[in-house]
UniProtKB/TrEMBL annotation:
<dbReference type="GO" id="GO:0000271">
    <property type="term" value="P:polysaccharide biosynthetic process"/>
</dbReference>
<dbReference type="GO" id="GO:0016020">
    <property type="term" value="C:membrane"/>
</dbReference>
<dbReference type="GO" id="GO:0006488">
    <property type="term" value="P:dolichol-linked oligosaccharide biosynthetic process"/>
</dbReference>
<keyword id="KW-0328">Glycosyltransferase</keyword>
<protein>
    <submittedName>
        <fullName>Dolichol-phosphate mannosyltransferase</fullName>
        <ecNumber>2.4.1.83</ecNumber>
    </submittedName>
</protein>
<dbReference type="GO" id="GO:0035269">
    <property type="term" value="P:protein O-linked glycosylation via mannose"/>
</dbReference>
<keyword id="KW-0812">Transmembrane</keyword>
<dbReference type="GO" id="GO:0006506">
    <property type="term" value="P:GPI anchor biosynthetic process"/>
</dbReference>
<feature type="transmembrane region" description="Helical">
    <location>
        <begin position="375"/>
        <end position="395"/>
    </location>
</feature>
<keyword id="KW-1133">Transmembrane helix</keyword>
<comment type="similarity">
    <text>Belongs to the glycosyltransferase 2 family.</text>
</comment>
<feature type="domain" description="GtrA/DPMS transmembrane">
    <location>
        <begin position="285"/>
        <end position="395"/>
    </location>
</feature>
<dbReference type="Pfam" id="PF04138">
    <property type="entry name" value="GtrA_DPMS_TM"/>
</dbReference>
<feature type="transmembrane region" description="Helical">
    <location>
        <begin position="309"/>
        <end position="330"/>
    </location>
</feature>
<feature type="region of interest" description="Disordered">
    <location>
        <begin position="1"/>
        <end position="20"/>
    </location>
</feature>
<feature type="transmembrane region" description="Helical">
    <location>
        <begin position="282"/>
        <end position="303"/>
    </location>
</feature>
<feature type="transmembrane region" description="Helical">
    <location>
        <begin position="351"/>
        <end position="369"/>
    </location>
</feature>
Length: 406
């Protein structure tokens, strides 16, 4: 990992002791630095942040076109790379011929995927404006100056490069009806869910945007996958947002990194952004619980109706099957990231104990509701299931799969 040297290295230079040079009596206050000189952190006009994952054949053209489009002074390009190929070496080689200073941050762990990489780039950036764009030339480098100019002119915090604003287009870049359908559908769903945040934004899925560095709060961001612009808008709530239309281009070289897994990650991102992480987990736990009704009833039906087993042992076995089903889904889908904290046997035994303790809680509660308070049996049963659901989730979330600092 290389990061261009910054002022922090100067702290090691020896400082003269106060007694060595007595301060002249006429000096009332000492000013740090030179008047009229901007601190290093904001000395640049713009930083172009480019996330890369195996994009070796796009780097040369991208840098050439950026250098042709942008002033060479006051600009820097920061690549944040998670590649498994030699992309970082290709970038370093191309940087030698590039009139704009180029930095590569190569990450050992691709935490947060594309969004995580972008946030890393936002932190490293030193420009007053930060432009985020893809490496594959689907975002024409020639529109970058227009993004920053629009932000300055309109006093905006965020400028979104839009395929859907008047004058923009997505047709060339979204090859095939399937991709257009997925893109259009997810944009619509997102706009409905976050309508208040997205009133001014026609293309919330865009990977091309410019943000005023002073409006950024990177500590607030919890990036997860592709939709980093949405994350920024929802969590950082930029003041004024404007759009610049552009035509989405076909990919220059290589292939797209988006996949079905990325689609699932996007749904997770949406749920976390909308409900908060814990309530999103509870929602998934509820869906898994509802899905457990299927193996439960199915097993009961088979044992009781087909195999003629007495309904009580049949119900207990059916319950066991359902708990197993729930465990499989919970362990692989819901807590995939927290599994490593506890061994498999530890997780499954606790899960099954919880599933049975559930009966210990529910049966007395059922008796209390029905015999004590004269609640109808079905309603009472439903109440015990709901109470048990919340209690079990809290134990699961806070004990069995407790989050730990890495
Ligand atoms: N560092 C890093 N880490 N970069 C990544 C990763 C990752 O895990 N995954 C993808 N990238 C980089 C790619 O190398 C490329 O520069 C950029 O992110 C976009 O990836 P593509 O694979 O080209 O994505 P896409 O064309 O399907 O999606 C683009 O368009 C969408 C709109 O249709 C992206 O800009 C999306 O953000 C955008 O929503
Ligand atoms: Mn692309």
């Amino acid at each position: 990992m290389t990061i261009t040297a910054d002022s922090s290295s100067t702290s090691s230079t020896p400082v003269a002791s106060p007694t060595a040079i007595p301060a002249p009596a006429s000096v009332r206050a000492a000013l740090r630095g030179t008047i009229g000189e901007l601190p290093v952190a904001t000395a640049l006009k713009q930083t172009i942040v480019v996330p890369t994952y195996n994009e070796r054949d796009n780097i040369g053209t991208l840098l050439e076109r950026l250098a042709a489009a942008l002033p060479h002074d006051g600009t820097e390009v920061v690549f944040v790379d998670d590649s498994t190929d030699d992309t970082p070496d290709v970038i370093r080689a191309a940087a030698a011929d590039c009139p704009i200073p180029v930095t590569v941050v190569h990450r050992e762990h691709a935490t947060g995927g594309l969004g995580g990489a972008v946030v890393e780039g936002l932190r490293a950036a030193r420009g007053e404006w930060i432009v985020v764009m893809d490496a594959d030339l689907q975002h024409p480098p020639e529109v970058v100056p227009a993004l920053v100019a629009a932000g300055r002119r309109d006093g905006a915090d965020l400028v979104v490069g839009s395929r859907y604003a008047g004058g923009g287009s997505s047709r060339a870049g979204l090859d095939g009806g399937y991709r257009r359908l997925v893109s259009g559908g997810s944009t619509l769903v997102t706009k409905v869910i976050f309508r208040n945040n997205l009133i001014q934004v026609s293309d919330p899925m865009s990977g091309l945007f410019a943000i005023r560095a002073s409006s950024l709060e990177t500590e607030e961001l919890r990036p997860l996958g592709y939709k980093i612009l949405l994350e920024l808008i929802v969590r950082n709530r930029p003041g004024r947002i404007v759009e610049v239309p552009y035509a989405f281009q076909p990919r220059h070289a290589g292939e797209s990194k988006s996949s079905l897994a990325e689609g699932v990650r996007f749904l997770k991102h949406l749920a976390i952004l909308r409900f908060g992480a814990k309530r999103a987990r509870m929602l998934v736990f509820a869906l898994i619980g509802v899905s457990g009704l299927l193996p439960n009833q199915g097993t009961l039906w088979f044992l009781h109706e087909v195999a003629n087993v007495h309904y009580l042992p049949a119900a207990i076995i059916a319950n066991l099957v359902a708990v197993g089903w729930n465990f499989a889904l919970t362990d692989t889908l819901l807590y995939r990231d927290r599994r490593q904290h506890r061994r498999f046997t530890g997780r499954i035994t606790r899960f099954f104990v919880l599933g049975h303790a559930d009966l210990l809680l529910r049966l007395p509660l059922l008796a209390l509701l029905v015999s004590g308070l004269h609640v109808g049996v079905l309603i009472a049963n439903l109440i015990t299931l709901l109470v048990s659901f919340v209690v079990r989730f809290l134990i699961l979330d806070g004990v069995i799969y407790r989050a730990r600092r890495p």
